[in-house]
Amino acid sequence: MRQLKLARVGLTLAALxxxxxxxxxxxxxTEVKGWTLSLSGAVDGYLTTAxxxxxxxxxxxxxxxxxxxxxxxxRSAIESGLLPSFLNLEVKTQNGDIEYGADIGFFxxxxxxxxxxxxxxxxxxxxxxxxxxxxxxxxxxxKIGRDMxxxxxxxxxxxxxxxxxxxxxxxxxGFGQTTFGRIGVGYIYVDWAPQIAYTSPDxxxxxxxxxxxxAWDTLNFSGTTTPSLQGHKTPGVxxxxxxxxxxxxxAHLWAGGWWQTAASxxxxxxxxxxxxxxxxxxxxxxxxxxxxxxxxxxxxxSGKGAxxxxxVFDAASWDGSxxxxxxxxxxxxxxxxxxxxxxxxxxxxxxxLDVASNEAAAANPLVKSNxxxxxxxxxxxxxxxxxxxxxTGTTSKSHAGxxxxxxxxxxxxxxxx
Length: 417
Description:
- By secondary structure, the protein is mainly beta.
- The strands form two sheets. Strands 2-4-5-6-7-8-9-10-11-12-13-16-17-18-19-20 form a 16-stranded antiparallel β-barrel. A two-stranded antiparallel ribbon has the order 14-15.
- It is 4% helix and 51% strand.
- It is built from two helices and 20 strands.
- A hairpin with a 2-residue loop joins β18 (367-382) and β19 (385-398).
- The chain has helices spanning 2-13, 153-157, and strands at residues 28-32, 35-52, 75-79, 85-95, 98-108, 126-136, 140-148, 192-199, 206-213, 236-245, 251-263, 276-291, 294-304, 316-318, 323-325, 327-339, 342-353, 367-382, 385-398, 403-416.
- It has one domain (2-416): Beta Barrel (Porin), CATH 2.40.160.
């Protein structure tokens, strides 16, 4: 259980510094001896309250509703939303046609990480993003270092609850510093990894990115039969194509894929050397603005051995003799409408996980689906400062037929600079 809690800390701490590329971000820049230094960041905080289903229904292994299972009491917290506070520094310069530089980011949530809500507890500053980059306008850009992955990146960047809370509000001690937004209820968390990536120049609205990433280990998030596979003979591969359509009906389209392997290293691991898991997954998505102020977003992913909620979380089953992959899928439907300084939003999403070929569904507490509906109001009080009010209903179901749910409310603000 402690390992699961630590895993959830790792999952929820990694909220997205990539919002730096969003319109709300306003980098502070200066020139020093030929170098451009840009500083940007965000600070947020929310009062969250979660009303847990108190039925006698059994819990859902790997479910994210009610956080601690059935019978959970109402909880409240003052915490970060899906994004924690962060500070990002970029330095770059030009030498002939080559632009090059580095990017580094620090972040921390409001909740303490060394003792929960007791006295003398403290938060932790996490260096999640640090890479060098170089390229030309005609060739494209190469990035080497640690940054977020590609698979699921556009889904989370277009998630309206990125500047709110979404699912996972008021988590108890040990479950992390941020809420989930739509992580596990519509998409697999993009996560961060050491990587070497290439992004093409703009090709008449299209861009292609291909990355070699450090492959991820499997993780038994649900506490069921997921094996520990930590061996990686090759890097993982992720690729993404985006296309931006201007004109009368602006749109942003994307499609991506992911491949990796993970194998047993033996030793004290009950899974013998030679047993392995191959992950394959694809995604498609789009945002469309059919009329001024209205934006629609749709997203779908499907994978085998990809897991659910986090990358390769509960991605396979070990029955004592073989490792078998579990299939997963998810989708999101979202609509937002902006009237002057007010944005109203409504979204529904679901993530599903099948049992593997070597396990039975009957009486299996493994999560079958996590789903949620989110309603939000986002008010731009002044440039850079947004006030947020969200209500979220989350339901988790198991293959055994059990179901548990919660309803949460979040009120707070986020400031970008």
